[in-house]
Specification:
Bound molecules: adenosine-5'-triphosphate, magnesium ion
Largest sheet: 7 strands, parallel
Number of helices: 21
Oligomer: single chain
Shape: globular
Number of strands: 14
Structural class: alpha/beta
Length: about 550
C-alpha cells in the first residue's frame, strides 16, 4: 500500500492526514487519488468502511486554493447525518490548509445556513433537496463549481433524488470534474453517469465477497414475538461496546428504543420522523458514547462511520441484500473487526438465503442465547467493571475500613457475590410488547442479479423507475405499496402507480412484490407525521407522475 506522501500532496494536507492517524492509503484511495488528482472524472466502488470519503476528499481539497472565495466544490449525500459526517471529515482534512466547508441539509434552520454561506465556504456538502432550495433562493450559486461528488449515488436515486440531482448538475459548469461513488451500478446510475460524466475512469475494489471481510456474520432463527427477548439476551451475552440495532419501520424503532430503555439499556432511536435537532442529539450521544445502543431505521444504513461500533443487529431483516451489506458495514470499518447478527423469523428463511446468495457469503446459524449465557455476559461485564476499579487502586481507601469489618464477619465469596448481584442489577425484566411486523419474504428472483454486476438484487428496478407503465398488477411491489401509503400526504397514489408497475413489469419483477411491500404497507401510519422535508414543496416539479417519493417520506 502507498503512503500518502507518495501521492505528491501538499504538506498541509499531508499533515492533516497524519493527524487523522492514516498511515497508509486504503486500496480505493490508492487507485482513486492519482486519477482524481489528474482531474479525470471517476466512478468509484468499494466495500463499506474502506475510506471512500478520503478517496474523493483528498483530491477535492488539494485542488482548491486557500484564498478562493466562491463555492468551487459540491458534495451530495443521501442523508442528513451523512452530510454532517462528510463535512466533518472534510473539515479535518482541511484543518491546516484552512479551507471553509459547510453542510447544507434539510431540517436545519435555513437562516443559520444562510449565515454560514456568508462566510464564503469553498466546499458545500449537502442533501439534494435543501441544496435546490438554496439554489432557488439564490443563496447558493453553482456557477463556479469545479468539482462535484455524488456519494452513495445509488441510494440518492433510490430515495427519489434523480430529478433534483439532474437539476443541480445542469447548473454546474460543464468544465468540471465529477466523481460518483455508488455501491451498485444499476441502469439509472449508468444513465446518470453517461449524461453527466466525461470519460469516467472506473475504480472498483470489490473482492469476491461483497461484504467487508472483517465482519463476523451470524443469524438466529426466532419467532417474531420472541425477538425482543432474544435482543436483550444477545446484548447481555455479547456486551457490545457500541451497537446499532436496525428495525424495519419508524414505529418499530420507537418501540424498540423504549423497550430497551425500560430494561435499563442505554439506548435511543433514530429515524426520519424525529426533528433534526433530535436526530443530531441522538447521533451526538452515540458518537460520544453516552448511549451505547443506537436503534435505527435504514436512515442509518448508509455511510455512517462511528468508531467503536462492534455490533450490528438486524432486529428485522432488511428489504434487500444490498441494504444488508450496508447495514452490517456500520461495523468492521477501517481495518477493525465487527459482528453482525440477524434475527430471522421462520417464514423469512428464504429471504435470508437470498441475502446469502447475493452477497455470496454464508451466514452462520447460531442458537438463541440462553438465559444462562445472558446472565453470564452481564456478570462478566460486572466483573470487568470491578476489576477495572481494583486496578485503578487509589480511590478505594475510604471503603477499605468497612470492607475489612465485613470480611471479619462474613464469608468473602458470599460478600463478593452479593456485591456483584447489586452491581449487575435487577434480573426481573420489564415485559416488553412490540407491535408485530409482517415477515419479509423473498418471492421469486431473476437469475443474474447481483450487487457486483451492478444490478439491484430486486431485479433491476433502477432501469424502470422512471417508467410509466400502466398496469395495476400486484407484482408492482414495493413502490406501489409505498405510494398508496403516501397518497394522502404527497402526490396522488394513482400517478405513482404508473411508476411502480413499471418496476413490476421487469423481467424479474414480482420478486420485490412481497417483501418491499411489507415495509411500506406500514408507512401509512407514519407518512406525514411531523417530518420535515429536505425540500420546499415549491421546488417540486409539477409532473410528479413518474417521480418516486423520497424514502425519508415513508417509513425510515
Ligand atoms: N488510509 C486510512 N487509514 C486508516 N483509516 C482510514 C483511512 N482512510 C479512511 N480511514 C477511516 O476509515 C473509516 C471509514 O471511512 P469512510 O467512512 O470514508 O468509509 P466508506 O468507504 O465511505 O464506507 P461506506 O461505504 O460505509 O460509506 C473512517 O473512520 C475513516 O476516517
Ligand atoms: Mg462512505
Amino acid at each position: 500500500m502507498k503512503t500518502f506522501a507518495e501521492f505528491g500532496l501538499e504538506p498541509k494536507v499531508l499533515q492533516a492526514i497524519t493527524e487523522l492517524g492514516f498511515e497508509e492509503s486504503t486500496p480505493i484511495q490508492e487507485q482513486a487519488i492519482p486519477i482524481a488528482m489528474a482531474g479525470s472524472d471517476l466512478i468509484g466502488q468499494a466495500q463499506t468502511g474502506t475510506g471512500k470519503t478520503a478517496a474523493f476528499g483528498i483530491p477535492l481539497i488539494s485542488k482548491i486554493p486557500r484564498e478562493e472565495e466562491k463555492i468551487v466544490a459540491l458534495i451530495m449525500t443521501p442523508t442528513r447525518e451523512l452530510a454532517i459526517q462528510v463535512a466533518e471529515e472534510i473539515g479535518k482534512l482541511t484543518r491546516f490548509k484552512g479551507l471553509r466547508s459547510l453542510a447544507i441539509y434539510g431540517g436545519q434552520d435555513i437562516g443559520r445556513q444562510i449565515r454560514g454561506l456568508k462566510k464564503k465556504p469553498q466546499i458545500i456538502i449537502g442533501t439534494p433537496g435543501r441544496l435546490l432550495d438554496h439554489i432557488n433562493r439564490k443563496t447558493i450559486r453553482l456557477d463556479d463549481v469545479q468539482t462535484i461528488v455524488l456519494d452513495e449515488a445509488d441510494e440518492m436515486l433510490d430515495m427519489g433524488f434523480m430529478e433534483d440531482i439532474q437539476s443541480i448538475l445542469k447548473l454546474v459548469p460543464e468544465e468540471r470534474q465529477t466523481m460518483l461513488f455508488s455501491a451498485t451500478m444499476p441502469p439509472n446510475i449508468q444513465r446518470l453517469a453517461q449524461q453527466f460524466l466525461k470519460n469516467p475512469q472506473h475504480v472498483s475494489v470489490i473482492p469476491k465477497q461483497i461484504s467487508a471481510p472483517l465482519i463476523d456474520q451470524a443469524y438466529i432463527e426466532v419467532p417474531e414475538r420472541q425477538k425482543f427477548e432474544a435482543l436483550s439476551r444477545l446484548i447481555d451475552m455479547e456486551s457490545p461496546d457500541l451497537a446499532i440495532v436496525f428495525g424495519r419501520t419508524k414505529r418499530r424503532v420507537d418501540e424498540l428504543a423504549e423497550g430497551l430503555q425500560k430494561r435499563g439499556y442505554s439506548a435511543d432511536g433514530l429515524h426520519g420522523d424525529l426533528s433534526q435537532n433530535q436526530r443530531d442529539a441522538v447521533m451526538r450521544k452515540f458518537r460520544d458514547g453516552s448511549i451505547d445502543v443506537l436503534v435505527a431505521t435504514d436512515v442509518a444504513a448508509r455511510g455512517l462511520d462511528v468508531s467503536g461500533v462492534t455490533h450490528v443487529i438486524n432486529f428485522d431483516l432488511p428489504q434487500d441484500p444490498e441494504s444488508y451489506v450496508h447495514r452490517i458495514g456500520r461495523t468492521g470499518r477501517a481495518g477493525k473487526e465487527g459482528t453482525a447478527w440477524s434475527f430471522v423469523t421462520p417464514r423469512e428463511m428464504d429471504h435470508l438465503h437470498l441475502i446469502e446468495r447475493v452477497t455470496r457469503h454464508r451466514i452462520t446459524r447460531k442458537p438463541l442465547p440462553t438465559m444462562a449465557e445472558a446472565i453470564e455476559g452481564k456478570q462478566r461485564i460486572t466483573a470487568e467493571r470491578l476489576l477495572a476499579m481494583v486496578e485503578d487502586g487509589g480511590e478505594l481507601n475510604e471503603y477499605k475500613g468497612i470492607a475489612i469489618q465485613l470480611l471479619e464477619q462474613y464469608d468473602s465469596v458470599q460478600l463478593l457475590s452479593a456485591a456483584m448481584k447489586l452491581l449487575t442489577g435487577d434480573t426481573k425484566d420489564a415485559q416488553i410488547e412490540l407491535t408485530p411486523e409482517d415477515p419479509i419474504r423473498a418471492k421469486r428472483r431473476g437469475g443474474k442479479n447481483d450487487i457486483r454486476s451492478g444490478r439491484k438484487p430486486n431485479g433491476g428496478y433502477g432501469g424502470n423507475r422512471t417508467g410509466s407503465g400502466t398496469g395495476t398488477g400486484t407484482g408492482g411491489g414495493y413502490r406501489g405499496n409505498r405510494d398508496n401509503a403516501s397518497g394522502g400526504t404527497s402526490g396522488s397514489s394513482s400517478s405513482r402507480g404508473g411508476y411502480s408497475s413499471g418496476y413490476g413489469s421487469n423481467s424479474s419483477g414480482g420478486y420485490g412484490g412481497g417483501y418491499k411491500g411489507n415495509r411500506d404497507s406500514g408507512a401509512s401510519r407514519d407518512a406525514g407525521a411531523g417530518r420535515s422535508s429536505d425540500r420546499k414543496p415549491s421546488t417540486r416539479p409539477s409532473s410528479t407522475s413518474t417521480r418516486p417519493a423520497k424514502r425519508e417520506d415513508y417509513d425510515i
